[in-house]
Amino acid sequence: MQVEVPMATDRTDVPPLEEPLAELERTIIDEYIRGLGHNPETLRASIDPGARRILVDASTYAATRLTEVEARSHYVRELHRGH
User: Helix axis angle, 49-81 relative to 22-35, nearest 10°?
Assistant: First the structure.
């Protein structure tokens, strides 16, 4: 008995879904890395444990900054609602 396998749908023309703040997060991470004197693309391609540590630190920094942005945004929305 032959099982028919459905063909995969080509979705290369469909952009991936992203979180609303994903671009801002990437920008913050890249600025952090550049601020340390490194190239973000080079650092991401590196297998050096020191590079990995910098990437982790940059991600942590970005998460903290995004939390601030979201908190301020929430505060402004509340002000506009009159609460």
Answer: 130
The pLDDT, as a whole number, for residue 82 is 77
User: Distance between CA atoms of 63 and 55, rounded to whole angstroms?
Assistant: 12
- 3-state SS, 58-78, equals HHHHHHHHHHHHHHHHHHHHH
* Domain locations in the chain as residue ranges: 22-81
Check: pTM over 0.85? Answer yes or no: no
Angle at 59 between CA 56 and CA 65, to 5 degrees: 145
pLDDT category, 40, cuts 50, 70, 90? very high
Which pair of structure tokens corresponds to residue 33?
């890395």
